[in-house]
Amino acid sequence: MVTRRFVLSSLALAAAAVALPLALPAMTAAPIRPKLLIFDVNETLLDLGKLQQAVNQEFKSETAFKQWFALLLQYSLVDTVTGNYHNFGQIGDAALDMLAQALGQPARPAGRKKELLTLITELPPHPDVIPGLTTLQKAGFRLVTLTNSPDATVQKQMAYAGLTGFFEQLLSIDSLKRYKPHPDTYRTTCERLKVAPAQTMLVAAHGWDTAGAQRAGLQAAFIARPGQQTYPLAPAPTLTGPTLPDIARQLLG
């Protein structure tokens, strides 16, 4: 029995030794050059500083915007997980009420909340965005957006920022009624544009977004905007860089 076990163990080790070198190339292989680049909008392309300043001033707190934006994301996911749906503007409005309550302040009138929320359609692009998009467009990449904001909002955002002409389509999760990072949001976009997930790359400045895209089978590029981090329990993004032109240089090799 000892001899037989030794022989079986030796055979298993030999098989592993043969298999290991064959597995290594797959682990170190370069990513497939994507045919389609899907861009997140808020914070990735657009600078939220104007909105951040307004919310912080309104609630007299340097952390008010971060609290509000976290509530906005949290309760969009609550809607998705519970099979419910309110658009991003509705959740943003409710999150302002929740923020006021958390800070021990009175709820703002509907008109004032609308003024604050309208600022999301009046945001400039980050300084690196137009140079980066220009490089990618000239290189022949297909470019689209995919945002949690409603269709009407992203249309206004891109027009105000002067970015509409860079994109083949301005897409939102609004028709699907599930928020990113639900895998259906990314897969449905790939199906709509007839590109395989493995040949598609999400470009985003949020670790939760890149994690969701990769779990759905896409590649992901993380723009490391100040204050943003990747999720340590998710796969590392395919590409990481401080600016969009840096991501573009990596894509072009």
TrEMBL record:
Hydrolase keyword on record: yes
Leader peptide range in chain numbering: 1-28
SUPFAM superfamilies xrefs: HAD-like
One Pfam family of this chain: Hydrolase
InterPro entries: 2-HAD (IPR006328), HAD-like_sf (IPR036412), HAD-SF_hydro_IA (IPR006439), HAD_sf (IPR023214), PGP-like_dom2 (IPR023198), S-2-haloacid_dehalogenase (IPR051540), TAT_signal (IPR006311)
CDD domains per the UniProt record, alphabetical: HAD_L2-DEX (cd02588)
Record key words, sorted: Hydrolase, Signal
Similarity remark: Belongs to the HAD-like hydrolase superfamily. S-2-haloalkanoic acid dehalogenase family.
The name this protein goes by in its record: Haloacid dehalogenase type II
Organism (species): Hymenobacter algoricola
